[in-house]
Specification:
The complex is a heterodimer of chains A (227) and B (382). With 227 residues, chain A is of the alpha/beta class. Helices cover 33% and strands 27% of the residues of chain A. The chains are: A alpha/beta (227), B alpha+beta (382).
Chain lengths: 227, 382
């Protein structure tokens, strides 16, 4: 049997907020298979985004073991974690977070700038990513010249351009109208189905979650078995 | 290497697409560097005129306890006695007439030298208009330094009157020594008569010795020789003479160093402030870049590059404008009959541009440290 893409064992996260200690995640266990599209749901403050931050390597667990694609990332140094992040994770934000002064092409190119890739190869990859999200004809537009749905598609192209095995999406349709949201969800599902990406998506929207292979509910930092 | 070039390119894009902010910062840096270059030019021009070097072999014999040329009246026959001193190669009697003996930015200086000795006094001069023969032929002929002629719009054949001396322009000369480009050379007897000093009276003697190490012993011998003469002398190496005679000028220019220091601090503060604002405005953008796999040092390098580019651009504009302005205006500072041409050189320009670049980078250090140490998760939420 293949090892899961994501293997969380007893991971907890705590931090200080003034004098009190907050525990957004407590002893959480989770396995996600390679190529699986997982939706995480739960009320605000349930620990969804904290879990996403840990999976994407922009935050570290206080305790527990977190193995992704065979690497125990909870034990990596900050420097190694940064390098790992560049090669293994694509992050899709709710508010797209594109750099406003850069064109769609330049935004998508960002994750490749620190690689040893040649300019030609980099440009070819960016064009492929933008074609994949259906924006080949908008590559020289700045975010201000794009609709919300188009901006999110640029953000998805940016997330996949380095060909990471794992994509994490934090409410990717939360700021979009229904039609744009449907297109984005189709695209994300296509990335899992046709390109073998493992996807973990946080959402409040049950319709969005329904697009995933599996839905998990989080509450007070723990997975609910029977939501 | 590829990554660094890409980061520099990204920093460049940030600057050119935030055009107004960049231009305002560059304008501020340029203003500071303009002042810095003007001050550095003053300092360097003064240093060149006063710092002795191993190649110096010229002494100036002046009347003891006198400074303004009109007060230094030495008998011309002293030349024959000086010429007999061991180690002396050449003695040139010189009459100097200036329109203003105090510190001034617009000094007109006439140097009267024996016509046969002009080429010995200033062998490096080159006649670029008119002719030396015309100067030899005419009693009132003058060879004008090209800056002198340019400032007053004079050309060969023109007549010119200043400090009670009326001359006819015979030619325009160019010299590698900036001071020579700001004076008018006339014949010694003509200037003695025109200035009413009288024939046989000169302002100073320029004495060339065989070797630099003979400067001191020859100077002492000359002063000893005339100690009890009708006009006692004070003999010093040419550059020391300039430094002492134009001491007010030296003090004034020394003070301007503080203006240069002020300009440097102003530029540093301006770039630091601009970059701090940039970093604060880009908190979320930097967090996104970190999420995409940019290490903190790459974010720091981006900020440092922007600071360096702003400094370099402002430096090139400010230093370039200052160098052009100073060349165009050809300022000459005069004091006690000594003139100091304020001319920027390649060293001043290179130092100015390099200083601006380093200032830009140095001023961005703190903003860069801030940018590279910002926590990702909190900043994504901000």
């Amino acid at each position: 049997m293949n090892a899961p893409m994501i293997q969380c064992r007893g991971i907890s996260k705590s931090y200080h907020k003034g004098a009190t200690v907050v525990n957004p995640l407590e002893a959480l266990d989770l396995d996600v298979a390679k190529g699986e599209f997982l939706a995480l749901m739960g009320p605000s403050g349930s620990g969804k985004t904290t879990l996403l931050n840990l999976l994407s390597g922009i935050d570290s667990p206080t305790s527990g073991s977190l193995i992704i694609a065979g690497t125990e990332i909870s034990k990596l140094s900050r420097r190694d974690l940064t390098k790992w992040r560049a090669n293994h994770v694509g992050y899709i934000f709710q508010l797209y977070h594109l750099v406003p002064i850069l064109t769609a092409f330049e935004n998508v190119e960002l994750p490749l700038l620190l690689s040893s890739m040649s300019k030609k190869e980099r440009h070819s990859r960016v064009e492929t990513a933008l074609s994949l999200v259906g924006l080949a004809d908008r590559m020289h537009h700045t975010p201000a010249e794009l609709s919300g749905g188009q901006e999110q598609r640029v953000a998805i192209a940016r997330a996949v351009v380095a060909d990471p095995p794992l994509l994490v999406a934090d409410e990717p349709t939360g700021d979009l109208d229904r039609e744009s949201a449907t297109r984005i969800l189709d695209l994300i599902r296509q990335l899992a189905r046709d390109h073998g990406k493992t996807i973990v998506m946080v959402t409040h929207d049950a319709k969005a979650a329904a697009a995933a292979d599996r839905i998990l509910h989080l509450e007070k930092g723990q997975l609910l078995l029977n939501p | 290497m590829n990554a660094i070039i890409n980061l520099l390119n990204l920093a460049w894009i940030q600057l050119i697409r935030h055009r107004v902010r960049s231009l305002l910062t560059i304008f501020g840096v340029a203003s500071g560097m303009f002042l810095f270059t003007a001050v550095e030019t003053l300092q360097r021009s003064l240093a060149k005129a006063t710092e002795a070097s191993a190649a110096d072999t010229t002494l100036v014999v002046y009347r003891e306890n006198r400074f303004c040329p009109s007060a230094s009246r030495l008998p011309e026959h002293y030349a024959d006695e000086i010429r007999r001193i061991k180690g002396v190669r050449e003695v040139i009697p010189v009459q100097i007439v200036v329109n203003n003996c105090g510190a001034s930015l617009d000094v007109i200086t006439f140097r009267g030298v024996p016509d046969a000795l002009l080429r010995k006094f200033a062998p490096e001069i080159e006649i670029i208009e008119g002719s030396e023969e015309d100067w030899q032929r005419r009693d009132d002929g003058a060879l004008l330094g090209e800056v002198f002629a340019q400032r007053r719009g004079l050309k060969p054949g023109d007549r010119f009157d200043a400090a009670g001396v009326t001359i006819t322009v015979s030619g325009i000369l160019r010299s590698p020594f900036a001071q020579d480009n700001n004076v008018a050379y006339v014949k010694l007897p003509f200037l003695q008569q025109a200035s009413r000093a009288g024939l046989g009276v000169v302002t100073q003697f320029n004495v060339r010795v065989n070797e630099s190490k003979q400067l001191e012993p020859v100077a002492s011998t000359i002063d000893e020789l005339f100690r009890s003469g009708q006009e006692p002398t004070d003999t010093r190496p040419e550059k020391a003479f300039f430094a002492e005679t134009a001491s007010e000028l030296v003090e004034l220019i020394g003070f301007t160093r503080w203006l240069g220091v002020g300009a440097v601090f102003a530029v540093g503060g301006l770039v630091a402030n601009a970059l701090l604002l940039v970093v604060r405005g880009r908190v979320k953008e930097n967090a996104v870049l970190r999420t995409l796999g940019f290490p903190g040092r790459a974010i720091g390098l981006l900020v440092l590059s922007e600071g360096g580019m702003l400094g370099l651009a402002g430096g090139m504009v400010g230093v370039g404008l200052a160098a052009w302005f100073l060349r165009w205006q050809s300022f000459t500072m005069g004091n006690e009959g000594q003139t100091l041409a304020i001319q920027p050189d390649a060293t001043v320009v290179a130092v100015g541009v390099l200083a601006a670049l380093l200032l830009g980078v140095f001023a961005s250090l703190w903003p860069a440290i801030q940018a590279m140490t910002q926590p990702i998760v909190q900043n994504l939420r901000s």
